[in-house]
Design goal:
Layout lengths: L1 H50 L3 E5 L5 E4 L1 H7 L3 H4 L13 H12 L9 E7 L6 E10 L6 E8 L1 H55 L6 H29 L7 E4 H18 L3 E4 L7 E4 L1 H22 L5 E8 L3 E8 L8 H4 L15 H11 L3 E4 L8 E7 L17
Parallel strand pairs: 7-9
Antiparallel strand pairs: 1-2, 1-5, 3-4, 4-5, 6-8, 9-10, 10-12, 11-12
Helix pairs in contact: 5-6, 5-7, 5-8, 5-10, 7-8, 8-10
Length: 416
């Protein structure tokens, strides 16, 4: 009986061992399959890394290149073997070394998921031609420790295209300014003739006070001061025109909005007065400073005001008035130009901003198109009300910060 029990136990043990052996063989097969799949996945990832159309570079904390793909090697003009283990700093101007190291420091300081990317634009030197690249980096863990995985995007052509677009916009803006001065020409001549005529009269009086029986040296000093005042007045008019017409790149500075608004209104006031149109400003509290190109902002305002004058004159409106309002908000300033002209036809509140679109036969049709481009280049907006109660109403906003606010709907008026 004992022998039978032992044989049964041995059989059971042998069966269990055989079962375990089969299980181990199955698991070994699954492991081999997983290893093969993992090796294939690694090969695919390595191929994707190597053959990606954008450059990939892996950095350590000091900016040493651990590895780079073919696109990055091509961009940097070196073989992968030459790049790996070398520093990225020699590719940069010395002034940008600290910029890159600061970039890497920020990336390695990131924690938590998902990891943020840090964006940086650098100029690569030591190549056949200077290239501008954008680095988009994030931290990742590897067997060698933390590393910075960076995507290199060559944006040289894009920057050149943006520069060409900016130059074209500046050139068109200059043409639009010349067109605006052409519209104002007769009024400017009249305005200049006043101080020059007064100066001529005072010169005649000075001649009489300098010699002859009516000579009076003390009064002569006062007359000379008046001549000087009139000449200065004419000079100020010419200086405003020169500044307005000066063709140059957009240059943003901190400038009081009141100064820009007053300059634009002064420039158009003679034009409005010649056409017996009242140019008024709604009462406002102290206006803030804006970060903008004062000449270009003034150009937008001059264009809107000239459009309003021409619209009222063309329609022969009985009530001849232009009102300029300023609304200050938390993040932006809004300037509103209202006129008592005929307004725009139905649905024209957007088409008036199309280039070469104009309601004036003598106009180039550039004014409003360029004005909107200037507003948007400043992070602001320019639109016209679709159906105002009277005339046309244009809205022009500028950010008080360097960030722009969201855009509202649009509205309407005539164009220069």
């Amino acid at each position: 009986m004992a022998i039978v029990n032992i044989e049964v136990a041995d059989s059971a043990l042998a069966l269990e061992l055989r079962t375990r052996q089969l299980e181990l063989e199955r698991q070994r097969g699954e492991l081999r399959q997983t290893q093969d799949e993992l090796a294939l996945s690694r090969e695919r990832c390595a191929r994707l890394f190597d053959e990606a159309p954008v450059g990939y570079v892996v950095f350590d904390h000091a900016g040493v290149i651990r590895t780079a793909n073919l696109a990055a090697a091509t961009l940097l003009g070196r073989s992968r073997a030459e790049l790996e283990g070398g520093s990225f700093l020699p590719f940069l101007a010395e002034a940008q070394h600290e910029v890159l190291l600061g970039h890497l420091q920020r990336v390695f300081a990131q924690s938590g998921l998902p990891l943020a990317t840090d964006d940086l634009v650098l100029e690569l030197h030591g190549l056949a031609a200077v290239r501008v690249v954008r680095l988009r980096s994030s931290r990742r863990e590897s067997l060698a420790g933390d590393e910075c995985f960076t995507v290199l995007l060559d944006i040289t052509e894009r920057q050149l295209a943006e520069e060409q677009t900016r130059r074209a916009r500046d050139a068109l803006a200059q043409v639009a300014r010349l067109n605006a001065v052409g519209i104002l020409a007769s009024s400017l001549i009249h305005e200049l003739s006043q101080p020059l005529s007064a100066a001529s009269f005072f010169c005649s009086a000075a001649g009489q006070l300098a010699q002859g029986p009516a000579a009076d040296p003390e009064r002569l000093i006062g007359v000379i001061a008046r001549i000087n005042g009139q000449v200065r007045r004419a000079s100020d008019i010419m200086e405003r025109l020169r500044a307005f017409l000066r063709g140059r790149q957009m240059r943003k500075v901190a400038v009081p909005l009141e100064q820009v608004l007053m300059s634009a209104c002064d420039l158009v006031s003679w034009f409005a007065s010649d056409h017996k149109i009242a140019l008024r400003r709604a009462p406002t509290l102290d206006l803030p400073e804006i970060v903008a190109d004062p000449v270009q902002v003034e150009q937008v305002l001059v264009n809107l005001l000239c459009n309003a004058v021409q619209a009222i004159e063309r329609a022969g409106s009985a009530r001849r008035e232009i009102l300029v309002e300023v609304l200050a908000r938390a993040t932006e300033i809004e300037l509103i130009v209202r006129d008592t002209g005929p307004g725009l036809g139905p649905g024209r509140h957007e088409s008036v901003f199309d280039i070469f679109e104009s309601t004036n036969d003598s106009s180039l049709g550039l004014g409003l198109a360029i004005s909107r481009a200037i507003a948007e280049a400043h992070g602001g907006r320019l639109w016209a009300e679709p159906e105002p109660e009277e005339g046309a109403v244009f809205h022009f906003t500028l950010p008080l910060m360097l960030t722009a606010a969201a855009a509202p709907p649009a509205a309407s008026a005539p164009s220069v």
